[in-house]
Amino acid sequence: MRIDIITVVPELLASPLNESILKRAQESGHAEIHVHNLRDYTDDKRRTVDDYPFGGEAGMVMKIEPVYRCIEKLKSERDYDEIIFTSPDGITYNQHEANRLSLMKNIIILCGHYKGIDYRIREHLITREISIGDYVLTGGELAACVIADSVVRIIPGAIGDEASALTDCFQDNLLAPPVYTRPAEFNGWKVPDVLLSGNFAEIEKWQDEQAYERTKALRPDLL
Ligand code: SAH
User: Fold this and answer.
1) How does pLDDT run across 52-62, given as a tens digit for each residue?
2) Structural domain range at position 28
3) How many domains are there within the chain?
4) Looking at the predicted structure, is the pLDDT value of residue 17 above 90?
5) Which of 41, 112, 130, 152 is the most exposed, fewest CB within 10 Å of its CB?
6) Ligand 1 cavity residues, CB under 6 Å
7) Is 166 within the bounds of a domain?
8) Ligand 1 atom nearest to CA at 130
């Protein structure tokens, strides 16, 4: 899978995209992530990507021309399944959407900044608008990292232990059961006996019950 991220602050993306699973998935060829600096698509000396809003409101607006040039260049090189804009008024991101995106071949994620982007970009170039929650970020870069991370980790083969991604929260509309590691007792606090029993049928039954009980208590809306 290939993800192209368009941003005015590429520095914000460097570290999150180049560590841990995202790093390994790129090294093993399961994912390709390319970051494009919008300033490279400007045509003035000062590499201007924003301008004052029509109507005279406060704040600056991302200009249409550099975004258009960048998206058109990428589209001339390959077909894209989705051109995403990160936006607080988009659909709320969840595991279902991450699963859907992980099946795609090529996607673009455009990060907004400043007060927002010229609305014509959203009207004519964008195919999907995604919010990562009901709060406002400074820019779409952190949202793009959230999307890239959650999508790449479920590409088959990207995680060594594939079962691990499938038993995460939300994959079956259930929260994950609790996990423990050694020592079996710390400070008088004990790990549940069943996990030490070696009886895998019992352990699985316990995990299923825990997943259900935790979901009922913490997120009944998922059931
Ligand atoms: N004036 C805008 C907010 C601009 S914040 C409004 O009220 O809707 C600047 C940029 O950050 C946005 O264009 C968007 O790309 C990104 N952003 C902010 N909050 C976000 C969120 N919850 N999810 C995804 N992207 C977000």
Assistant:
1) 999 998 999 99
2) 2-152
3) 2
4) yes
5) 41
6) 86-89, 111-113, 115-116, 131-133, 135-137, 139-140, 143
7) no
8) 24
